[in-house]
Amino acid sequence: MISYDKFVANKRLRRIVLLLAVIGLFYLLRSMMSMFLLTFTFTFLSVRLVRAVQRKFPKVKPVWVIAPVYLLIIAALTFAVANYVPQIISQTVKMFQSLQKFYQSDEMRSNIYLTAIYNYLQQINLDAQIKTAVAQAVNYISSVGVMGLNIFLSFLLSFFYTTQVEQMNKFGHQFLSSNYGWLFEDLRYYGQKFVNTFGVVIEAQLMIAVVNTTLTTITLLFMQMPSVIALAVMVFILSLIPVAGVIISLIPLSFIAYTVGGIKYVVYIIIMIVVIHMIETYFLNPQFMSSMTHLPIFFTFVILIVSEELIGTWGLIIGIPIFVFFLDILGVHSIEKNESKKKLSLKKFR
């Protein structure tokens, strides 16, 4: 019992043990990672919306805010699935077919620059990699039903939580006064850190992805590119990857642009990507990220590579937020500190 009291009194040790235990628990439940992350993301965005409305109208109950929004989302998803999903599938198939024809065409091999690219692709055995990618795509398509179920359950759980957010908070506070209140106090500590890092960064990256996709789609429409809907979906998904997503999207966009308008269109695509990257770097990141995750580019790419290896596809999206979360715990890079510094500088400026 004395050892237990010493352990409880040692706040730093018990928090380290608790963090390792939580990481181990998530590792054991890694098959449910998609549901956890989706539920957290939906709930975080919903609660932020409710709080924003309640600041203007304090007496409004969460259910009156969330219910109409969720009904609109369900209606929009139903309309999109019925009308645009078949178009996305057909356009994606056509896009891959056009890329394959261009890759195997004499026009590509007769061009000096494209020949060099072709030889390099041959050296890295691109054909085998494409076959592997196609096989993985088939596996992903076969798991669409499972992913759809995860999205539905996450959507439903976030709705129930947000509509009863006040009751959930009161219920959660009861654990703080229990016999193991120290445990739940530490869990709340990590929960607050997690929301201050992971939630805010994910929200900011979603906003950046929406802006990037909008600008790219407008440019593609002006260039009269084919399969715009499929390309827009691809750009949005890649834009969720910090920094690297915009660069990765350059490769398929350039190939498709060359099949449509030759080198001139490739130059247009490169200029578009450079402009969007500059907008993201000098406007969107400072505006949405609030100077929270200004990590060196070297660290950004290393984190993406390692997190993709450890977590999989999700690692490309959540790797940076998780890294910032651990930096916040270590006291190296705190969002709360950055936010307070930003507010202080604004006060001085005023």
From TrEMBL:
InterPro entries, sorted: AI-2E-like (IPR002549)
Family: Belongs to the autoinducer-2 exporter (AI-2E) (TC 2.A.86) family.
Listed PANTHER family: TRANSMEMBRANE PROTEIN, TRANSPORT PROTEIN YDBI-RELATED
Membrane-spanning parts: 12-29, 63-85, 140-161, 198-222, 228-253, 265-285, 297-327
Chaperone keyword on record: no
Keywords of this entry: Membrane, Transmembrane, Transmembrane helix
Protein name: AI-2E family transporter
Pfam families: AI-2E_transport (PF01594)
Keyword Membrane: yes
Subcellular location: Membrane
Natural source organism: Companilactobacillus allii
Membrane topology label: Multi-pass membrane protein
Gene Ontology BP annotations: transmembrane transport
A GO cellular component entry from the record: membrane
